[in-house]
Amino acid sequence: MQSKGPGQEPLQTPRAAGLAGVVFALLLAAAIVLIRLGIPEGSAVTAQGFTDSGRRRAVQAALALVPFAGIFFLWFIGAVRAHVGAAEDKFLATVLLGSGLVFTATMFGAAAAADAVLAVAHPSGSAPELSAWDFGRHFAYTMMTGYAMRMAAVFVSSMSAIGHRLGVLPRWLTVLGFLIALTLLFVSPKIPWSELVFPAWSLVLGVHVLAAGLRAGSRTATSV
Predict the structure, then answer these.
(1) Is residue 152 within 8 Å of 118, Cβ to Cβ?
(2) pLDDT score recorded for residue 222
(3) Does residue 55 contact residue 39 with C-beta atoms inside 8 Å?
(4) Which terminus of the chain faces fewer neighbouring Cβ atoms within 10 Å, N or C?
């Protein structure tokens, strides 16, 4: 049986974590954009606008992406925790895992609410009833911006704290993480499209972890 070289095993996890983070970020950003375009937010938006086939297709495409975004996000959490290993702070690690799981659940809930808005539209293309439209649209956006993104803020802040304590994240990325967490906590429910900062942060973190793994791999290869 061939033995593994020094540092070979740990390098597999950061690459997996980085790749999962990048894919999750792209899928979530695409889903948010499509939901925003398909089900606009605001009291001036009426149910008549949802009879447009382009909007319905946008929502259907977003709903198809959400489950895969959740899968890659769970993989991202597991890969990051495995990379941190025994050195992780158990308190922060528990907060990280819990907020990540709650975020995934509420994201799925927001997608289900959006699917409900889509389902109440009559197959003939008539507009949904005003009461059903208002309830479904408000519920979907409350789940996404009021709950899911605030859980995302807890996830970002705990990940940034872990990265700072263990020295696995650069200072600028740690500071950026705390700023993103504050934005998700206080700005996201009030300003449309601001929730895109979470997939943007996930993309930056994923690229950083992936690049760090590649650099470490090249150093190991040259030292052998």
Answers:
(1) no
(2) 55
(3) yes
(4) N
